[in-house]
């Protein structure tokens, strides 16, 4: 089984989590590896913000390279990270539909019978990109509205294979 997430939702989530002020992954890894590039791309004064760099600077940075292997694992595409073309996954679930997909997978796989007390947590409503059980692309697109067309185009190219392999719309 593989669980995937819409690439633009995943990219925004990676920034929201890993770029927070004082985050250990940012301090120990991202700053050391990518600071020089992020400093060149940052246009905002981030001294009073909750994040080390703005989402715009991060998105522009993520759009720079077409080489997925050069990205941090938190914003690499799942196509590179989990090799879906090399492994035959019996189940592909989408994080945005986990509350609907997981019970079915648990029943089909026999885990529900084997572990009857297994609990699947409900989707978090505070950071959701779904509305009434369907993916709301307008909510996913919202953080990207201030990006230049060139950055959007490069992000699209960089994550195109991911979107087509897992049937996501952009």
Main attributes of the structure:
mainly alpha, two-stranded parallel sheet, 49% helix, 6% strand
Write a compact overview of the structure shown.
By secondary structure, the protein is mainly alpha-helical.
Topology readout:
Layout: E1 2-4, H1 7-18, H2 24-41, H3 55-64, H4 78-82, E2 92-94, H5 98-109, H6 111-114, E3 130-131, E4 134-135, H7 137-141, H8 149-165
Parallel strand pairs: 1-2
Antiparallel strand pairs: 3-4
Radius of gyration: 18 Å
What is the helix fraction of residues, given as a range? 40-55%
String of helices and strands: EHHHHEHHEEHH
Strand content: 5-15%
Quaternary structure classification: single chain
Ranges where pLDDT stays below 50 over 5 or more residues in a row are none
Strand order of the largest sheet: 1-2
General form: globular
Give the structural class.
mainly alpha
Give the distance, in angstroms, between the N- and C-terminal Cα atoms: 24 Å
User: Largest sheet, if any?
Assistant: 2 strands, parallel
Number of helices: 8
User: Average pLDDT value?
Assistant: 82
Count of β-strands: 4
Molecular structure report:
This protein has a domain at 2-94 and 141-165. With 170 residues, it is mainly alpha-helical. It has helices at 7-18, 24-41, 55-64, 78-82, 98-109, 111-114, 137-141, 149-165, and strands spanning 2-4, 92-94, 130-131, 134-135. The model has no long low-confidence stretch (mean pLDDT 82). It has a two-stranded parallel sheet. It contains 8 helices and 4 strands; from the N terminus they run βααααβααββαα. The relative contact order is 0.19. The longest helix is centred in the first third of the chain and has 18 residues, at 24-41.
């Amino acid at each position: 089984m593989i669980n995937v997430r819409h690439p633009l939702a995943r990219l925004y989530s990676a920034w929201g989590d890993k770029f927070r002020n004082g985050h250990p992954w940012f301090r120990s890894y991202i700053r050391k590896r990518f600071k020089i590039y992020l400093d060149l791309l940052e246009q905002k004064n981030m001294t009073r913000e909750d994040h080390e760099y703005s989402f715009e600077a991060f998105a522009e940075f993520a759009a720079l390279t077409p080489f997925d292997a050069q990205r941090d694992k938190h914003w690499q595409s799942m196509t590179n990270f989990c090799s879906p073309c090399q492994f035959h996954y019996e189940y592909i679930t989408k994080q945005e539909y986990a509350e609907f997909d997981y019970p079915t997978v648990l029943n089909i796989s026999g885990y529900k019978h084997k572990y009857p007390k297994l609990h699947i947590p409900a989707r978090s409503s505070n950071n959701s990109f779904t509305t009434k059980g369907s993916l709301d692309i307008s909510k996913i697109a919202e953080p990207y509205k201030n990006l230049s067309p060139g950055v959007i185009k490069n992000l699209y190219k960089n994550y195109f294979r991911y979107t087509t392999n897992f049937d996501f719309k952009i």
